[in-house]
Amino acid sequence: MGILFLFQITLLEAQSPRGNFFDDALSAMDKAFSQEIVTPEDEYYLGRAVAANILAAYKPYTANPELTRYLNRICQTIVIISVQPAIFKDYSVIILDSPEFNAFASPGGHIFVTSYLVETAASEDMLAAVIAHELAHIMLRHGVSLIEDFRLNDEMAAMAEKARDLSGNSEASAKLMIFRDSVSAVVDALFKNGYSQSQEFEADREAVALLAAAGFYPGALLEMLKALQQVQPSQKERFNATHPSPEQRIANITGLINRYRVEDTRSYRVRRFSAFKQLH
């Protein structure tokens, strides 16, 4: 990963409101590492850098912008009733043009869903379940917890010291190394190491609560996990060893779903979802 990846976030936003993105992000994360708590603004700039790495690995789906708008409307329906409806910047969903069955979320509100996953969904509520799970990772600050753990690691001081030795402009080099490696920690969690099983289970439980509160069918997450169960054997290399299996995740939420008394309104969304599928 290099500086080039960081600038590719301009695919998400045409222009940084504070000027040069890299300088903004580096300055913001320098402040984050100097204080005890990572603020929402820190999360946002960290998330932009993580999102840049995702967009370096995947192309955005641009064939039909209305599909992206549709997913963002679903996202806002869930967010508006959540305990965290407002963050430093808005939540946003982007479709990735990929044959993988996958979704990611970076700190600060960026959510990515692959086009194959979107194509596989059989209802609006299943799409809402995927988005709710990724929102849960953001709201539970799972990505930020990796950075907070990293920040306490003694190796960070050693890396900064090494950067000072290698450069005449030592302070800037040290900041760059810390920022780059903090981004790497989150990117590795998304692409390679995965969140812990307890974090995935926690995100699933929170997703069920978010779906119910927004009026979606809470069991839609079970339906999406069963769809994952069907396609996972053909994409086994995409799922890391630390990630719980669909069977484990299904067991984690099966009993929980029945605790939510939600009127079944799925029939009202069939026509809207059918129109959406015709766009794909």
Query: What is the overall number of helices?
Result: 13
Strand content: 5-15%
| Structural class determined from secondary elements | alpha+beta
* Helix percentage range: 55-70%
Oligomeric state: single chain
Mean pLDDT: 77
E-strand count: 4
Alpha carbon gyration radius? 19 Å
> Which word captures the global form?
globular
How would a textbook summarize the main sheet? Answer: 4 strands, mixed
Order of strands, widest sheet = 1-2-4-3
How far the N terminus sits from the C terminus, by CA atoms, comes to 32 Å
Tell me the series of helices and strands, N- to C-terminal. Answer: HHHEHEEEHHHHHHHHH
Model regions low in confidence, pLDDT < 50 over at least 5 residues:
1-22, 152-157
Summarize the structure in words.
The chain has 280 residues and is α+β, with helices and mostly antiparallel strands. It has a domain at 59-137 and 203-280. Helices cover 61% and strands 6% of the residues. It has helices spanning 3-7, 21-33, 40-57, 65-79, 115-120, 124-139, 142-151, 154-166, 170-191, 197-214, 220-231, 246-257, 270-279, and strands at 59-60, 92-97, 103-106, 110-114.
